[in-house]
């Protein structure tokens, strides 16, 4: 068989050679050890935690080593393309502090290793496919769906592995004349890789996360170019990651099973194999069992979830680091005030058996992270979020800037600071009592206090209320009201002699808190009253008294 001739017949329009592309995309001029990583999402419009998790690894590897982190859009599947998806990918990752150095960017492509959209790289894939045909390592396959099904059936009958390989690969050894006859007949064809692997063969490869792996060789003649000339993932991955000079391929563990294909193609092309880093699936606990996060069942899988609820990017980053590197939490305890960026991220400390994602833990971490951010900054973040996601509350936040900042600050100083704030939606809910149009009484009075009793206590409260009292004067008055109405002035007195009292000062304070804040728990009521102003305090209490 004259493979050169075959290649010419199949790819008459391809004049470039692989060497030409090797020259156009030379080895990058980076310092020794610098890593080149890429994110290769499909533009489906859905960007998820797994993407962010992987992107985080890419970004850290590249930027910790003065390397390059770029974005390549894997848009070879027409059916899955969604308008605006690329913008969503870029802006979502930017929200979480991940910025690309190169690739498909919002204002066009940047970098000398493009095009960065796979749909614009057709000629490059075809050039490499042509080369493989010339080498006798790829061939046109005219198999129809029916023929493939036929082959499969026979394989099942004979109890052998299914697929297109060896003696089953019916178009593998056509003569030039036979190929020509099929082409003259205008038959559709794909280009398949001609594998030399065996079903028994194995090889070893180092995965930077999983260590040394011994895996089965590829022996299937996989499709590398589809009938429309578009590459499959397997082929595009090898061609792109080589010609874009990627040093570390970070991708999900679902690609491990097809790694043998990639390995064989890299080998036959004589290209250096990148360092593979197969990340573990993100898991969650569900009814006591670990399972993969699912797009259908778990809204928290999509990144939109975090942006819509207004999670602070620093909190999400901090949390991701705890699941990305097993030594992060320890480091954080030792370095409470250091920037997360100063942590030395390593692939060796990554989990390879499923990373557990836990929303409660994210919320807890978020509380700690927000505590380190000033109330002014949280206010700005909240306002920006409201403008983008809850336009109906942006106005009141804007008109009450000073009060909101004060509300956000209450109880955050001292050695036992309050940790009330988690994410914007919850933060707004947390301070919403301040705004009359959002104020509602959510909690009930303590069990031992009836509505009438509460009114009586509130009347007494208003009777002695002086807005200029300082905190201890104010509380002293509550003790007095408590005593005058049959409540112990100190909880411990009540505990000693519960039969002597209706309750204790804590119950009376609760009634006041509920009248003013609407909830049984809140930061210090005296401080809140000072922020709200006398008029609002009196109005709220009077309203209950007069009900
Ligand atoms: N387009 C592939 C995906 O979205 C990329 C996998 C890879 O990073 O190689 O899963």
Can you describe this structure?
The protein has 547 residues and is of the alpha/beta class. Among the domains are: 4-13 and 123-232, Glutamyl-tRNA Synthetase, domain 3; 374-425, no CATH class; 440-547, Arc Repressor Mutant, subunit A (Orthogonal Bundle), CATH 1.10.10.350. It is built from 23 helices and 16 strands. Strand 2, helix 4 (85-95) and strand 3 (102-105) form a beta-alpha-beta unit. Helix 1 runs antiparallel to helix 5 and helix 14 packs across helix 16. The chain is elongated and about 110 Å long. The structure holds glutamic acid. Residues 40-42, 74, 237, 251 line the site of glutamic acid.
Number of DSSP helical runs: 23
Supply the CATH architecture of the domain at 4-13 and 123-232: Alpha-Beta Complex
Low-confidence stretches: none
Backbone CA Rg:
33 Å
Strand order of the largest sheet: 1-2-3-4
CATH topology of the domain at 4-13 and 123-232: Glutamyl-tRNA Synthetase, domain 3
Shape: elongated
Largest beta sheet, briefly?
4 strands, mixed
| Percent range of helical residues | 40-55%
Q: What amount of the residues lies in strands?
A: 5-15%
Concise structural overview:
It contains 23 helices and 16 strands. With 547 residues, it is α/β, with parallel strands linked by helices. Among the domains are: 4-13 and 123-232, Alpha-Beta Complex (Glutamyl-tRNA Synthetase, domain 3), CATH 3.90.800; 374-425, no CATH class; 440-547, Arc Repressor Mutant, subunit A (Orthogonal Bundle), CATH 1.10.10.350.
């Amino acid at each position: 068989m004259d493979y050169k001739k075959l290649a010419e017949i199949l790819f008459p329009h391809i004049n470039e050679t692989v060497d030409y592309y090797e020259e156009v995309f030379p080895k990058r001029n980076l310092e020794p050890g610098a890593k080149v990583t890429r994110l290769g999402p499909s533009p489906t419009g859905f960007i998820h935690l797994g993407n962010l998790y992987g992107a985080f690894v890419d970004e850290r590897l590249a930027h910790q080593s003065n390397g390059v982190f770029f974005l390549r859009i894997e848009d070879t599947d027409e059916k899955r393309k969604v308008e605006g998806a690329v913008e969503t990918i870029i802006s979502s990752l930017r929200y979480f502090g991940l910025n690309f150095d190169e690739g498909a960017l919002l204002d066009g492509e940047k970098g000398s290793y493009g095009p960065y959209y796979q749909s614009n790289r057709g000629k490059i894939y075809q050039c490499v496919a042509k080369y493989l045909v010339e080498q006798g390592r790829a061939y046109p396959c005219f198999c129809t769906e029916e023929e493939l099904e036929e082959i499969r059936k026979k394989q099942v009958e004979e109890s052998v592995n299914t697929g297109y390989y060896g003696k089953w690969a019916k178009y593998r050894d056509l003569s030039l004349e036979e190929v020509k006859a099929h082409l003259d007949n205008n038959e559709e064809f794909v280009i398949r890789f001609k594998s030399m692997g065996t079903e028994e063969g194995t090889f070893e490869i180092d995965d930077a996360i999983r260590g040394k792996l011994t895996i089965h060789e590829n022996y299937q003649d996989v499709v590398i170019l589809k009938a429309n000339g578009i590459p499959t993932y397997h082929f595009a991955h090898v061609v792109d990651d080589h010609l874009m000079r990627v040093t570390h391929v970070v991708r999900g563990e679902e690609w491990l099973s097809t790694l043998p294909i990639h390995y064989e193609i890299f080998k036959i092309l004589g290209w250096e194999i990148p360092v593979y880093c197969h990340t573990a699936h993100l898991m969650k606990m569900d009814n006591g069992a670990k399972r993969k996060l699912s797009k259908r069942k778990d809204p928290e899988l999509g990144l939109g979830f975090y942006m819509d609820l207004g999670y602070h990017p620093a909190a999400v980053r901090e949390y991701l680091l705890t699941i990305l590197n097993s030594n992060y939490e320890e480091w954080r305890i030792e370095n409470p005030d250091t920037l997360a960026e100063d942590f030395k991220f390593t692939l060796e400390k990554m989990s390879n058996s499923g990373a557990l994602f836990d929303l409660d833990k994210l919320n807890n971490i978020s509380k700690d992270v927000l505590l380190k951010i000033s109330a002014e900054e949280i206010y700005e973040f909240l306002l920006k979020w409201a403008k983008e996601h809850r336009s109906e509350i942006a106005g009141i936040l804007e008109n009450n800037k000073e009060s909101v900042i004060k509300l956000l600050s209450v109880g955050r100083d001292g050695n036992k600071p309050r940790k009330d704030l988690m994410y914007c939606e919850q933060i707004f809910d947390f301070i919403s009592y301040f705004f009359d149009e959002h104020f509602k009484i959510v909690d009930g009075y303590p069990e031992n206090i009836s509505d009438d009793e509460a009114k009586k206590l509130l009347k007494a409260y208003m009777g002695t209320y002086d807005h200029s009292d300082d905190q201890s004067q104010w509380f002293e008055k509550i003790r007095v009201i408590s005593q005058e109405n049959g409540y112990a002035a100190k909880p411990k007195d009540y505990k000693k002699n519960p039969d002597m009292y209706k309750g204790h000062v804590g119950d009376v304070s609760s009634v006041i808190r509920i009248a003013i804040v609407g909830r049984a728990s809140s930061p210090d009521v005296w401080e809140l009253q000072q922020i709200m102003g006398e008029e609002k305090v009196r109005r709220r209490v009077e309203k209950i008294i007069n009900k």
